[in-house]
Amino acid sequence: MRAKGDAEAEAIRAKGIAEAQGIEKKAEAMAKMEKAAVMEMYFKALPDVVKAASAPLANVDKITMYGDGNNTKLVKDIMSTVTQVTDGLKESTGIDLNDVLASFTGAKMAMDAIEKKKDDQNIDIVDDKVDDNSDLSTNEN
After folding, report:
1. What is the pTM of this model?
2. What's the domain of life for this entry (predicted)?
3. How many CA within 13 A on the CB side of residue 122?
């Protein structure tokens, strides 16, 4: 009976060690990926957070607002909630969602500007190489 108890205790110990090692490996991987891993987890969880936050509204048939400024107050309250969520994310993870979104927007704007410049200069780009038929000097016709 003692041998059986020792075997069970050893099995529990081995399982605990394996789980701890798995968590440690995951933490190491997340540390290597830094912000990308946290952002991935955040964006995977975000739909569930929004769903849970909006669930009470599913039971509302109609919202009637009276008086001046109520629509403005509603929008202000929504924006305040969004700000609280992004501030909480920044405090808990160190990731500023506003900065992340701004960097995506900035990158898109830069790519759009590059494309516009290409169009303005009438340069044909094929597979990241200038087409042999293009004149790279000023386009004077």
Report:
1. 0.36
2. Bacteria
3. 8
What is the Cβ-side half-sphere exposure of residue 61, based on CA atoms within 13 angstroms?
0
- Is residue 130 within 8 Å of residue 136, measured between CB atoms? yes
Domain of residue 1 covers 1-33
pLDDT tens, position by position, 91-103 = 887 778 777 777 7
Record the tokens describing residue 72, joined without a space.
Answer: 């403005």
23 assigned to some structural domain:
yes
Distance (Å, whole) CA 101 – CA 99: 5
Give a yes or no: residue 6 inside a domain.
Answer: yes
- All residues at 6 or more sequence positions from 85 whose CB lies less than 8 Å from its CB, including other chains: 49
Whether 40 is in a domain gets the answer no
Give, rounded to a whole angstrom, the gap between the first and last alpha carbons of the chain.
98
| DSSP E strands, the chain | 125-126, 129-130
